[in-house]
Write a structure and sequence with these properties.
This protein is of the alpha/beta class. The protein has 10 helices and 14 strands. The chain has a 7-stranded mixed β-sheet, with helices on both faces. Strands 2-3-1-4 form a 4-stranded antiparallel β-sheet. The protein has a 3-stranded mixed β-sheet with strand order 5-6-7, with helices on one face. It is globular, with a radius of gyration of 19 Å.
């Protein structure tokens, strides 16, 4: 029995009001063993499970055998969640089933007029000559372009790439996941890109996605922890994680920023965005700006060391 569980993925579906979805997602990412969290589908008035048209279904996938209990404990520790959220289904998925289960929810996703994310298994024709199409197969890694945090970061990178000469820029992507941000930066002309993630499976996926995007020669992915990474300084750094991890890694991030470097952080909600902003102000960042999409925030600033 233990062998079967360790090779499988536990899917937990939770219903909640749309306004709570972002808050719930960030909390779920803090659970041990979580592989993916996402707002995968919404119920409708004909649903047999809820009969409530205003509920959003959030799914969390974890290999932790205690995953269901952990989620219940998390919700007990957050009384506000207990009043409005409900675990509506749990099921074990074998790897092959998990790898396919979420794909039915993902199709080509336009981020801007000049950028579209496309699953590797679907065909897509660019609408213009200057449109960048990112072909991805994220497997279990975070980053399909459907999540607000990823879209915020992609839009910020697109704007920066339109403003400065990316051929003179090196970039570090902290918590690269599927590699989507690093790969986009490379496709926009960054001379050197590195993506790091503490999940070796994510790194393996990111390497494959770099090959899909024909930028494998430009992007280097590694699972070496940030604190053990050589102290190369970067002109641009992106960190699409969650606030507690960003704040924990912040001192190491600062050691790897060139004076005048552009820094972008996302994965932030209303209760955490101010903490990251305050840390940036204390570290001497200027031109600090917030962007919001749905319940999620991104922060950017220029490092004046």
């Amino acid at each position: 029995m233990e062998t079967a569980v360790s090779s499988a993925m536990l899917e937990i579906r939770i219903s909640c009001p749309p306004v709570m979805a972002g808050y719930l997602e960030e909390l779920l990412w803090t659970l041990d063993g979580v592989e993916s969290v996402g707002e995968y589908y919404k119920s409708d008035s004909s649903s047999d499970q809820t009969q409530l048209s205003d509920l959003t279904h959030v799914a969390v996938f974890t290999r932790n055998p205690l995953g269901e209990d952990l989620v219940k404990v998390l919700m007990v520790d957050n009384p506000k969640l207990m009043k409005v959220c409900d675990i509506i289904e749990t099921r074990w998925l074998e790897e092959k089933d998990w790898a396919e289960s979420w794909k039915q929810y993902w199709h080509p996703t336009p981020i801007t007029d000049k950028l579209t994310i496309c699953p590797s298994w679907e065909a897509y024709e660019p609408k213009s000559a200057d449109e960048v199409v990112l072909k991805l197969d994220p497997e279990c890694a975070f980053g399909t372009g459907t999540h607000e945090t990823t879209q915020l970061m992609l839009k910020a990178l697109e704007k920066l790439a339109d403003e400065i000469d990316f051929s003179r820029v090196n970039l570090l992507d902290v918590g690269t996941g599927s590699g989507i941000l690093a790969i986009y930066a490379a496709k926009r002309g960054c001379r050197e890109v590195r993506g790091i993630d503490n999940d070796p499976l994510a790194v393996k996926t990111a390497i494959q996605n770099a090959k899909l995007g024909d930028v494998a020669s430009v992007v280097d992915f590694t699972d070496t922890p940030l604190g053990e990474l050589c102290q190369t300084r970067y002109d641009v750094m992106v960190a699409n994680i969650i606030a507690p991890v960003i704040l924990e890694l912040f001192p190491e991030m600062l050691l790897r920023l060139n004076p005048g470097a552009h820094f972008f952080a996302s994965g932030l909600i209303a209760t955490s965005v101010g903490k990251v902003e305050a840390a940036m102000q204390e570290a001497g960042f200027t031109e600090i700006q917030r962007q919001q999409q749905g319940d999620w925030f991104a922060i950017s600033g220029i490092y004046k060391a």
